[in-house]
Amino acid sequence: MTNKPQLPKATSSKSSSISRRMLLGSAAAGAAATTFGNFTILSRQAQAAEPLRVLCWPGYEEKDVIAEFEDLHKTKVEFKIYIGGEQMLQFFAQTAPGTFDAIISDAEYVQKLKANKTIEAYKTDGFAELANYHPKFRDFAPTKGETAGTVYGIPTRFSFYGISYNTDEMSAEQAGDWNSLLDKKYAGKIGMFDWYLPNLGNASLAVDPGNQTPYAITDDQLKKVKEFLTKLRPQIGMFGSSNQPIAQAMLAGDIFASPTGDLDIDLKLAGYDNFSSTIPKQGGIRWQEVACVCSASKNKDLAMEWVKYMTSPKVQSKLVYTKAFKARGPNMKIVDYWDADQKKLLSYVPDPANPGKMLVETLIDRSMPRGLPANQPEQAWIDIFNEFKTA
Amino acid sequence: MRGNPWIFAGRLWLGLAYAFMFLPLVVLVLFSFQKNRFPGFPLQGWTLQWYDKLFSDGTLLNALGNTMIVSPAAATIATAIAFFAAYAFNRFAFRGKTAFLALVTLPILIPPLILGVGFLGLLARIHLSGTLFAVFLTHVVLITAPALAIIQLRLSQMPVSLEEAAWDLGATEWQTVKKVVLPFALPGIFGAWLLAFTFSFDEFIIAWFVSGFQPTLPVAIYSVLVAAIDPSLNAIGTIVFGISCLVLIGLELVLLPLLLGKSENQS
Amino acid sequence: MTAATADLELLSITKNFNSFVAVDSVNLKVGRGEFVAIMGPSGCGKTTLLRILAGLETASSGQLYISGKDVSDVPVNLRSTRLVWQNYALFPHLDVGGNIAFGLTLKPYDKAVVAGKVKAMAELVGLSDFMGRKISQLSGGQKQRVALARALVTEPEILLLDEPLSALDAHLRIRMQGELRRIQRQLGMAFIYVTHNQVEAFSMADRVVVMNKGRIEQIDAPEEMYARPKTEFVARFVGTNNLFTGRIQEIGHDRVIVHCAHGQVVVMTDDPPPVGASVFVVVQADKLTPAPIGLAGENRLDATLRGREYAGSHNIYLLDLVDGTEVKMTMPQILPVEINRPVTAWFSPQNAALIRGAA
Amino acid sequence: MSSIDEAPPSRRMRTPNDSPLKVWFLAPLGLWLILLFLLPLLFLLWIGFWRVENFQAIPDFSLSNYTDIFASFFSKSRYGLAMIQSLWVAITTAFFATILSYMVALSIAFAVPARWQRLALLLAIAPFWSSYVLRLYAWQTILSRNGVINSIMRLVGLSDYRIDIIYTQIATRIGLIHYLAPILIVILYVSILAIDRVLIEAARELGCTRWQAFTRVVLPLSRFGLMTAGSFAVIVSLGDALSGNLLGGGAGTSIIGKLPTYASMIMSDYSSSTNLPRTSALATILIAVMVLALAVGFVLADRARRRIG
């Protein structure tokens, strides 16, 4: 409903050159002036040029990532940020059809979006950049369309739920084994992300190393997962609802390790070198985001263009390095846009243990994509997690 | 009174209380000027880089712009609604008055997360979710209760005879409201507006749910906050607190005299 | 007074608050230019009655006529009455001039006309030098004048005043009494003046109305009311009266003998109740004197001196009669009797009045 | 002077003014509340009776969400334990917040010269006007193992002592008390201010010590304010998940155990599963508990008010 996108745009583009005071003043004055304008023109239909509207995790809206697309297509892209797949579904379900043209979804949530018929499959031919994707991201396991050559979503960003740890307190060898977390030394010193899916997935791998389908397990296996978690409970010092509190807790020394992924990237960037991360030998869970096109979009062509844009190595090189998140990109060519430091930080460097492979490739090989419980209802898994939390 | 141990203990306690109240704010402001990327010790030196970062990226400023549209509008409408309602509550007796007042207070008591989901569900059905207008609509609900309380407080200080005098002199009811009640309630209205404004200015959970492509400032802050670790947040926190301090000066001048009943109105 | 010349006429006005009867079938006529004071103890209904006249309350039943027109259902803002409040009820956000002009600015008058009227009124009440003052900067007396001017400038037919002087100090009150009377005469307007202060009522009013429990007890000129109260209530309420309960024992030519508990009392009267009727004998305290030596005859009161109060210009003596009845006697001189000693008081039959008792 | 019955509450009077304004002036508030508060709330309660099929909420009237929740109230999902934790944390938080704020209010009212009281009150409530979330982050920095307090203790050579309360419900309470204090201080200060100073002077005159004057006059007369503040604090604490998540570490330790609060459970359940009806049912249970707490608070406050007379 930005009937006057010019104002904020003008403000932000000039912002570096004018003083803060002026900026505040002009923003306030502009805001006052457009108050009525904004309220009277409420309906989307009233606007001339339809911008592209995207529902996404944080990062995609940052100027570095999207500016080139906007310039190229002479359009404006508007973002609604969500945090967590459930919010995404709610935002989608609770807005008029056609509100969003494209969605960045977690790969496993594509199933739920499909069930709601909110997204549609599209052909992968014409996506030249897919050739540069790591093979694991070319099989589109959770997002494959019903007919050959179609997908519901193409990966754009991913990373791991391996163990991030404080190198002063934990050795690389220990971090390479899920069972080290049970060490008495770490009682109350493990932080955990407050979501059942990655944690139960990791536990599933811990009790059944190398399982290619950690989310499709039998009831017996699930029982073992529960036992593993029960043993883990006294080790947990805190549950974090997002990365920030966990990273803060690591830094403050309140916890020594966390199966939350790669908190070390941000910590290293901040100048704290005593942090690292890895995926234990039993395997670990990987998250990945995919770009989807909404079936009710009136702007599908532009949405497709945007999806294509997001597969480019240059864009991904920025996307995985945003203020919001540090992550990894499925397009292996992104290294061409980085300096040595960035490559090292994001582990796009040769793996000494695996000649001929980059470290990130080893990690990809060792990790399994996050999925939804295949053989049990969601609630059964959530109950296990709740029981674990309240144990 | 001098040397009285109770007074001494009271002042000591007050000092401790202030230390407790301001400690987080001091930390917030301190780390907005520190080089540390994570708030922690030891300190790594002074910098303005986080402010620079904040203002070089238009996102938060845009969000501030959105907030400056929604919050004044919501505060204005809420204050207007609250004034009329407070007048009616103050003047008339009617059945269900207590229940009505309880209903007004309920929105602040229901956890905002719960309310947010409810708002989203309903607004979606009338195709209003995802707009600044939706934020405006819901914020009015949330901030009317405090505004009402302040204006009621002011109106309760108005002698009944003031209105009667106006009627007696030939004023219609509407003329009386306009020419007598409104001027009398003005300090209360002003205080209520400020309070309503700051509530709306700070509110984020509901706004998170119902706002669309134009986030308000707290929503923008939150979307950076949950995802990343960025001391720019301390910078914006400092600025928001600075703005609030300005509002507080307004409060000092208007709201407190009212709350404490030290107004200059006639006996 | 006939209806034709009456400014105001109340016909059995009654006001109930739920089961409580605040005003009980009141009938009253007020003539053109008359100053009527309504008096009574707290809770007697006088203020409610005034508010009914102003239109701030609606009577439960009865009719109200102003200049012959039934205004019972006319709302307050359309009535030609104006009320002056006890607490002044001045608008704190307006200055003196703004307060006085308030009523006029509600109507589409020419500004110059308003200014002229306000100026003239300010002069009448002596506020010309205070027009720009804030209300909070005024003294009590000045506020009172503003309230008066604000009401009068709208040229009402009747001015209603609700204990307007009760918040002023004694000196100012007396000055304002005189001034109110002067203004009332000058404008020839009917004033209805509610007060619980008897001195105020008696010194200003043409007629005094005494109310009790929502009913009118007596309507009379002040002197009449003082000298000849018609009910026990009025007798007790007005002045410093002594009351003796008794029965008519004997009726003479122009006097009756009343049998009281402490003895016989002789009262002069033209209109005696029948023998055996229950009556009250009213004697004002200042009409009691110590009995002259050797006085043998009527209206002797044998008593014991219980106390003395010095009231500046006079002394108040508290006496107990033989049957325990308490009696007050006032006189300028000092009574050379010690406390708890016997004393004999006396009053002339001419100075006593008779009130018929209950039954 | 006119007595009470003579000048009845004139709001009850029938004047020309009676009427239309009452309806017109209350209508905006009423409509706004009904359309934009009651309707969404009822909608939310209603969703609690829906069912979920294939990740979609289907309108229905089924009690299965509630029976499911209560069937596993103390076993599988253990919402019951979380509810007990919530009540324990909320009641103790409210207790401490009320007592501590009362002491602040008393100090302002009695230990600060009259002309500085406004400033003192203003200072006490100023922190309310900064973002709650940011304040919680600041508290995290303060209470952490290597945080502000422990760093300072190390600096002054007290490295043997260390406060270790982050990720316990004590930290949760600190965050909540910091949030509640400004509001409670205002409520309590206003209620203390309403006490007639003459009563206190009279008590002193009658030979009360300062302490007796406090316990026999001030305390009984501020009971209503204390009850109001206390029940407000209980309700806010019950509904808040942020402090428990950020400072309490999601499932902070308390005497009862390492348990999350109920509000925190709702929040994480909501974001974990595609089951809005279940979330709604969970929320409805919380609202019911809050209404109950409010009713208890109301009864207590009313009793306190009656005792004051």
From TrEMBL, chain A:
InterPro entries from the UniProt entry: Sperm_putr-bd, TAT_signal
One cellular-component annotation, GO: periplasmic space
SUPFAM superfamilies xrefs: Periplasmic binding protein-like II
Coiled coil region boundaries: none
Record key words, sorted: Periplasm, Signal, Transport
A GO biological-process term: polyamine transport
Gene3D superfamilies: Periplasmic binding protein-like II
Residues making up the signal peptide according to the UniProt record: none
Domain of life: Bacteria
Localisation: Periplasm
Pfam families: SBP_bac_6
GO MF annotation terms: polyamine binding
PANTHER family per UniProt: SPERMIDINE/PUTRESCINE-BINDING PERIPLASMIC PROTEIN, SPERMIDINE_PUTRESCINE-BINDING PERIPLASMIC PROTEIN
This protein's name: Extracellular solute-binding protein
The species this protein was found in: Neorhizobium lilium
TrEMBL record, chain B:
Biological processes annotated in GO: transmembrane transport
Boundaries of every ABC transmembrane type-1 domain copy: 64-257
Membrane topology qualifier: Multi-pass membrane protein
Top-level taxon in the UniProt lineage: Bacteria
TM spans (from-to): 12-33, 69-89, 101-124, 130-151, 180-199, 205-229, 236-260
Database matches in Pfam families: BPD_transp_1
Compartment list: Cell membrane
Keyword Aminoacyl-tRNA synthetase: no
Gene3D superfamilies for the chain: MetI-like
Principal location listed in the UniProt entry: membrane
Cellular component terms per the entry's GO annotation: plasma membrane
Record key words, sorted: Cell membrane, Membrane, Transmembrane, Transmembrane helix, Transport
Recorded family membership: Belongs to the binding-protein-dependent transport system permease family. CysTW subfamily.
Protein name: ABC transporter permease
Species assigned in the record: Neorhizobium lilium
UniProtKB/TrEMBL annotation, chain C:
Subcellular location(s) per record: Cell inner membrane
Example of a GO MF term: ATP hydrolysis activity
GO cellular component, one term: ATP-binding cassette (ABC) transporter complex
Alphabetical keyword list: ATP-binding, Nucleotide-binding, Transport
Domain of life of the native organism: Bacteria
Family annotation (SMART domains): AAA
Ranges of residues in domain ABC transporter: 8-238
Pfam families in UniProt: ABC_tran, TOBE_2
PROSITE patterns in the cross-refs: ABC_TRANSPORTER_1, ABC_TRANSPORTER_2
Family assignment from sequence similarity: Belongs to the ABC transporter superfamily.
The protein's name in its UniProt record: ABC transporter ATP-binding protein
Organism: Neorhizobium lilium
Lineage: Bacteria, Pseudomonadati, Pseudomonadota, Alphaproteobacteria, Hyphomicrobiales
Automatic annotation (TrEMBL), chain D:
Pfam family for this entry, one: BPD_transp_1
Cellular component annotations (GO), alphabetically ordered: plasma membrane
Record membrane topology: Multi-pass membrane protein
CDD domains: TM_PBP2
InterPro entries hit by this protein: MetI-like, MetI-like_sf
Keywords in alphabetical order: Cell membrane, Membrane, Transmembrane, Transmembrane helix, Transport
UniProt xrefs under SUPFAM superfamilies: MetI-like
Localization per Swiss-Prot or TrEMBL: Cell membrane
Gene Ontology BP annotations: transmembrane transport
Transmembrane segments: 21-47, 87-112, 119-138, 176-196, 217-238, 281-301
Main location: membrane
Domain ABC transmembrane type-1 as annotated: residue spans: 83-300
Protein family (similarity comment): Belongs to the binding-protein-dependent transport system permease family. CysTW subfamily.
PANTHER family: INNER MEMBRANE ABC TRANSPORTER PERMEASE PROTEIN YDCU-RELATED (PTHR42929:SF1), INNER MEMBRANE ABC TRANSPORTER PERMEASE PROTEIN YDCU-RELATED-RELATED (PTHR42929)
Listed name of the protein: ABC transporter permease
Organism the protein comes from: Neorhizobium lilium
